[in-house]
Design a protein that fits this description.
The chain is of the alpha/beta class and 268 residues long. Helix content is 40%, strand content 12%. It is built from eleven helices and seven strands. The N and C termini lie far apart (43 Å). Bound molecules: adenosine-5'-diphosphate (ADP) and magnesium ion (MG). Magnesium ion (MG) binds at residues 15-16, 39, 43.
């Protein structure tokens, strides 16, 4: 079952935006996705209308109080399910050490509660490589790395590649990964140069679909919506749809779609 960590230790590259729109695409296509907000900034929880008042109601309740993950699941505005975050989640990085117990806790929790059974799980990571992000990568069987098409992004992306390669040795298995270029502005010559460099760095692991820098994607969070609901005919919606389809046909979500109900028979 696909458990996907959306990770890059650089901030502002489109992790939360990509998590939101992939979850929305999965839900629209008849999958039954579960999002986990593992960023103490709780942007995803905020955008999708699942902000909680106390840390105990967030995924922090799982780490601190050993609450079952299932008890923490909320409905997002759009109907799909999410385990929200809270600012206090940042304490996980200092409170519980860095040993295998805390790093494996989320993986074990997902497996014990069989949350990874028939539904894809997508984890929005925070922009640093600490206990939280490592827990997400340990819990995931695939990593999706959004990389923005700007000058500093290349160094950051190469660092992610190095980190994932090092983690493979710790985990004892390959970490399947895909890189996706976000915030692409085709009017800039630099964007095309960066694209070529990413192609040579990541080869087949670089998604062919790219996400353009668009007003619709930038504005959709203001209306607490994914880009498909906010601007269904926009370039941004088309880009995220194409990314979803590319990943789906490559088996990245690893699940068969939930059968849609038979259409109601109309009797005369
Ligand atoms: N393709 C895009 N076009 C326009 N704005 C974008 C795009 N992707 C992300 N943004 C905006 O950039 C900011 C950072 O994106 P975000 O997804 O929060 O990054 P991260 O989670 O990696 O920190 C947000 O304000 C978001 O709305
Ligand atoms: Mg984010």
């Amino acid at each position: 079952m696909a458990r996907i960590a959306v990770f890059n230790q650089k901030g502002g590259v489109g992790k939360t935006t990509t998590t939101l729109n992939l979850i929305a695409a999965l839900a629209r296509e008849g999958f039954d996705p579960l999002a986990i907000d593992l960023d103490p900034q709780a942007h995803l929880s905020q955008i999708c209308g699942a902000r909680v008042n106390t840390a105990a109601e967030s995924v922090y309740g799982f780490f601190r109080d050993s609450r079952p993950l299932m008890d923490l699941v909320r409905n997002a505005n759009a109907g799909w399910e999410v385990i929200p975050s809270h600012l206090e989640l940042s304490k996980v990085d200092t409170q519980f050490g860095k040993g295998p117990n805390v790093l494996n806790r989320l993986r074990i929790g997902l497996e014990r509660e069989q949350l990874n059974g028939v539904r894809p799980v997508v984890i929005d990571c925070c922009p640093m490589l600490g206990v939280l992000s490592l827990s997400a990568i340990f819990a995931a069987d695939r990593v999706l790395v959004p990389v923005s098409a700007d000058f500093l992004a290349e160094t950051g992306a190469l660092q992610v590649e190095k980190t994932l390669n090092a983690l493979q040795r710790v985990l004892g298995h390959p970490v399947q990964r895909r890189y996706v270029i976000t915030r692409f502005d085709g009017r800039r010559k630099m964007s095309w140069e960066i694209l070529e460099r990413f192609k040579s760095h990541f080869g087949a692991n670089l998604c062919e679909s790219r996400i353009s820098e668009t007003v619709a994607i930038a504005e959709s969070p203001f209306s607490s919506q994914d880009v498909f609901a906010h601007a269904p005919n926009s370039r941004g919606a088309a880009d995220y749809r194409a990314l979803f389809e590319e990943l789906d046909s490559a088996g990245f979500f690893g699940v068969r779609r939930v059968a849609l109900p038979e259409p109601a028979v109309a009797y005369a």
